[in-house]
Specification:
The strands form five sheets. Strands 10-3-11 form a three-stranded mixed β-sheet. A two-stranded antiparallel ribbon has the order 1-2. A two-stranded antiparallel ribbon has the order 4-5. The chain has seven helices and eleven strands. By secondary structure, it is of the alpha+beta class. The protein has one domain: Alpha-Beta Plaits (2-Layer Sandwich), CATH 3.30.70. 20% of the residues lie in helices and 20% in strands.
Length: 245
């Protein structure tokens, strides 16, 4: 099994890199957003990052979120598409009695009581203080227990040697991987790539924010509007909520 083994990549994967955004030649944004963390500063439990997805706005033929994820994470595939990593996928669910259906994006739900973490024998599956669930590929042994435990089928196994890797997402043959909620972007004060694409290219069905902040838009909507979690009966407390299902 071959996995990334540089401390630099590991730190970038776990914590992200705060960067200065260049807006135009000679114009630089010097003040980082309030949610950005300084390089090396650890995540804090004061935040609970999550998503609210309005399925009534999610169109079946829109794959902006999927395409953005593939590009952001460098997930371009191999000759065997069935083994390609897929951090987010579009799923269609139907009511067998009425025939009414919804299409919705499904990714790692970043559960507070994640089943993948419970079954991992090495501690490779882990949860940051701010609720983001990640995989430490340096100690992942490829047993795939986490893939079997996840009720959302949100994890992939890397079968091939990887190239075109991103510095913030080291990938390696023989390791399990999944949606990181774009932790590197969050740590830089930005939104996940899927959310950004949904707003600019899609229908604006995805809302990202801090569920622990009562003043945040997502927290206010969750408090005032009906939403649900996929397989809430399992008690895993996902950070992804859906409306309209």
């Amino acid at each position: 099994m071959t996995c990334p083994n540089t401390n630099k990549d590991r730190r970038q994967f776990l914590a992200g890199v705060a960067a200065t955004a260049v807006l135009a030649p000679g114009v630089v944004l010097l003040t980082a957003p309030a949610s950005a963390r300084a390089p090396g500063e650890p995540a804090t439990s004061a935040n609970r990052w999550g998503l609210l997805i309005d399925t009534t706005l999610c169109k079946s033929d829109c794959t902006a979120c999927v395409g953005a994820c593939v590009k952001e994470m460098g997930l371009e595939g191999h000759d065997r598409p069935r083994t390609d990593a897929q951090y987010i996928r579009k799923v269609t669910v139907s009511d067998p009695e009425t025939g009414h259906s919804h299409t919705l994006p499904v990714m790692c739900q970043h559960c507070a009581k994640a089943a993948c973490i419970e079954v991992c024998p090495t501690g490779a599956s882990m949860r940051r203080a701010d609720g983001i669930v990640l995989v430490d590929r340096h100690i992942c042994i490829g047993c795939r227990y986490c893939m079997m435990a996840c009720p959302y089928k949100a994890r992939s196994f890397t079968h091939e040697e990887q190239d075109n890797q991103k510095s913030y997402l080291p990938r390696g043959k023989g390791c399990v991987e999944a949606c990181t909620l774009c932790a590197h972007r969050i740590d830089d004060g930005r939104e996940p790539a899927c959310v950004e694409a949904c707003v600019t290219e899609g229908q604006g069905a995805m809302l990202f924010g801090d569920l622990a902040d009562p003043a945040s838009k997502i927290a206010q909507r969750v408090a005032k509007e009906a939403s649900s979690r996929i397989r809430a009966d399992l008690g895993l407390e996902p950070a992804v909520r859906y409306q309209g299902i």
